[in-house]
Amino acid sequence: MAFPIHRARRLRKNENIRRLVRETSLSVDDLIYPIFVEEGKNIKVEIPSMPNIYRYSLDRLDEELEEVAKLNIPAVILFGVPKHKDDIGSESWNDEGIIQKTVRYIKKNYPQLYVITDVCFCEYTSHGHCGVLKEFDVDNDETLENLKKQVVSHAKAGADMVAPSGMMDGMVKAIREALDNAGYKDIPIMSYSAKFASSYYGPFRDAAGSAPAFGDRRSYQMDFHNSREALKEVEFDIEEGADIVMVKPALAYLDIISKIRDNFNIPVAAYNVSGEYSIIKAGEKMGWIDGDKVIYETLVSIKRAGADIIITYFAKDIAKILNR
Ligand code: PBG
Ligand code: ZN
Predict the structure, then answer these.
(1) For position 207, what pLDDT does the model report?
(2) ∠ at Cα 242 (240, 243), nearest 5°?
(3) Alpha-carbon distance values, 10 to 2, 15, 24 (Å)
């Protein structure tokens, strides 16, 4: 008994009724803004493939932080670009390292911002891989030992949350134990649980100077042909103590976000990655799409798929769009 009794268009008649029946909302409350901090002085360099996204040195970072705070974006996630790299990435657990200094600076001067640190080694290793190399592959268990040092150093600096992105097996368990043993039992872990070996990371690797010197990351990041495996990864991470799980990238992986949302009762984050940003910005620049509208529609799709949290380079753009 459908038509003419039922007419779906009745509930689309005008904006008021559309607002009332809307199933998904997007708010500035959902957003985490990624920031790249480079060691050095007086640096503000635009990333060529990411219009309006910059690498800053700490002495120039106020410009960015003031805007993020003014727009009421709740959180930032920090990526460090160090001067000193070696084969194990030891600079990443230096208490005077770029991330540690930046965390202390933000917590002191912008206490309203929630500071999350990305926890990995690829920006810190001379070879650009996400851990300690053994015969041209990343050694999982040795990398865990260094991860523990890195998270404790971030926690000591005052990080509110840590986000391991290296896709090492057992990383959440190792980090939880390290934090607890060092007295940081209340610092949550947002795990990059289902991080796929993706070509959408290209612009980020320019930004962070973290492209692998040889090979690729397919022996540790997930094969994008798989989705059941993502559920397995999430299950392991929850058992190991993850507080929030993440899917990355977001857009080509909305099915994964949706499955995780349906199968687990834990907050789900989605990382709307660099390549996804660049494509939309390029289309906007060419005049081929309405950038603001496409940004809004895209971020709503990530929420509709089931994400609670969106990590996005569009955070400032969308905060301005939502405030209009
Ligand atoms: C490094 C890391 C990457 C991103 C976040 N952390 C890239 C990679 O795995 O090479 C990607 C972010 C983006 O593309 O926006 N572990
Ligand atoms: Zn990495």
Answers:
(1) 85
(2) 145
(3) 14, 12, 19
Q: What are phi and psi of 71, to 5 degrees?
A: -80, 0
Is 270 near ligand 1, meaning CB less than 6 Å away? no
Cα-based angle 191, 302, 222 (whole degrees, multiple of 5): 45
**Low pLDDT (below 50) residues in the chain:** none
- Residue 161, token pair as written in the block: 């949350």
Q: Is 120 in the pocket of ligand 1 (CB under 6 A)?
A: yes
Residue 57 lies in a domain: yes
In short, whether 122's Cβ falls inside 6 Å of ligand 1 is yes
User: The tokens of 64 are what?
Assistant: 């960015």
CB atoms within 10 A of CB 300: 16
Asked whether residue 217 is domain-assigned, the answer is: yes
Answer yes or no: is the C-beta of 205 below 6 A from any ligand 1 atom. Answer: yes
User: In this structure, what DSSP letter does residue 96 have?
Assistant: T
> Read out DSSP for 18-43?
HHHH------GGGEEEEEEEESSSS-
Residue 39 lies in a domain: yes
Range of the domain at 78: 22-322
- For residue 200, which ligand has an atom nearest its CA? 1
pLDDT at 159: 98
What is the domain count for the chain?
A: 1
pTM over 0.85: yes
Give residue 259 CA to ligand 1 midpoint distance, Å: 22
Q: How far is the CA of 40 from the centre of ligand 1 (A)?
A: 22
Identify the pLDDT of residue 1.
72
Residue 111 in domain: yes
Using the atom order of ligand 1, give the atom closest to the CA of residue 211. Answer: 10
Ligand nearest to the CA of 165: 1
Active site residue 293: no
**Can you give the length of the chain in residues?**
324
How far apart CA 272 and CA 293 sit, in angstroms, is 16
Give me the residue label for tokens 């991080």.
195
Catalytic residue from among 41, 70, 156, 248: 248
Q: What is the CATH number of the domain that holds 173?
A: 3.20.20.70
